[in-house]
Design goal:
- The complex is a heterodimer of chains A (168) and B (64).
- Chain A has five helices and no strands.
- The longest helix of chain A is centred in the middle third of the chain and has 39 residues.
- Chain A starts with 15 loop residues before the first helix and ends in a 10-residue tail after the last helix.
- Chain B has 64 residues and is an all-alpha fold.
- Chain B has a single domain, classed as 434 Repressor (Amino-terminal Domain), CATH 1.10.260.
- Chain B is 56% helix and 0% strand.
- Chain B is built from four helices and no strands.
- The longest helix of chain B has 11 residues.
- The N and C termini of chain B lie far apart (25 Å).
- Classes of the chains: A mainly alpha (168), B mainly alpha (64).
C-alpha cells in the first residue's frame, strides 16, 4: 500500500535512520498493543490495559500511515512500469529477503502451534494458542501490516543516507 | 545540469542519479548509453574497475 501525494509524487524521503526507527516502532507497538488487549489481567486493570493496548495499536497505524507516503514504500508497492531500473533491482532483492523472513516466521509460528497443541493434548501443559476471533484478528492484521511493509523495511536497512535528498 | 534535469533526460528517479554519482549503483548498458548520449561522451567513460580520474581529464584523453 502506497499513498501518492501531489506535493511529493515520488514519495517523501527520510534519512535511513529515521525510517528504520519508524519500522521498529511499527513492529513493536502493534504486537505490544495486541498483547495488552488479550492478556488476562485482574478485574481492576483489565479496562486500563485494554485502552493502553488500543492506543498502542492506533499509534502503530499512525506510523503505518506515515510510512505509506514515503519513497521507500512507493518503491516497494508501485507498479513496475513507474519505477526505474535501480528501484526495480532494489525492490526485487528486498522482496526476496522479505519473502524468506515472512515464510520463515509463518513456518516457526506453525511449528509452535503444533507443539503447543500436542503439549496441551498429551501432557496438559497450556502454552498460549490463538482461540478467540480477537486473537485471530490480531494475528491476521499483524500479518497484513508486516507483509505490506517488510520489503520497505529491508530496503531501509540496506540504504545509505543520501545527502541533500531527504525531505527532513 | 541539476540531478533533476539529468534524471528527466534519461528517464530515471533523481535519487538514482545520486546513487550513480556515489558509485552505489552500476547502470545497465541502456542507461549508460543514455547518459553517454546526454554528455556526448563515449560509453567507456562511464565504466571503470578503478576509481575514476577527474571527468575533464578522462574526456580529454578519450577525445585525443
Amino acid at each position: 500500500m502506497y499513498v501518492r501525494s501531489k506535493r511529493y509524487p515520488l514519495g517523501k524521503t527520510f534519512r535511513p535512520g529515521t525510517l528504520r526507527a519508524l519500522f521498529v516502532l511499527l513492529y513493536v507497538l502493534y504486537p505490544a498493543g495486541c498483547i495488552l488487549q488479550i492478556v488476562p489481567a485482574p478485574d481492576n486493570l483489565e479496562r486500563p490495559l485494554a485502552v493502553v493496548g488500543l492506543l498502542l495499536v492506533a499509534a502503530s497505524l499512525l506510523i503505518f500511515a506515515l510510512l505509506a507516503g514515503t519513497s521507500l514504500q512507493r518503491q516497494s508497492q508501485e507498479q513496475p512500469s513507474r519505477l526505474d531500473e535501480r528501484e526495480l533491482a532494489e525492490r526485487n532483492r528486498a522482496t526476496y529477503v522479505a519473502y524468506v523472513i515472512l515464510a520463515g516466521s509463518v513456518m516457526l509460528g506453525l511449528v509452535y502451534m503444533m507443539i503447543a497443541k500436542d503439549l496441551e493434548a498429551g501432557r496438559g501443559i497450556h502454552l498460549w494458542l490463538p482461540k478467540t476471533s480477537d486473537h485471530w484478528n490480531g494475528l491476521f492484521w499483524g500479518f497484513v501490516l508486516v507483509s505490506l511493509t517488510l520489503p520497505g523495511a529491508v530496503m531501509a536497512w540496506r540504504s545509505r543516507a543520501p545527502e541533500g535528498e531527504t525531505n527532513e | 545540469m541539476s540531478r533533476k534535469e539529468l534524471a528527466e533526460r534519461v528517464d530515471v528517479n533523481p535519487q538514482t542519479i545520486g546513487y550513480l554519482e556515489r558509485g552505489d549503483y552500476a547502470p545497465s548498458v541502456e542507461l549508460a548509453l543514455k547518459l553517454a548520449g546526454v554528455f556526448k561522451a563515449p560509453v567507456e567513460a562511464l565504466f571503470s574497475l578503478k576509481p575514476f580520474a577527474p571527468l575533464g581529464r578522462t574526456l580529454k584523453e578519450l577525445r585525443g
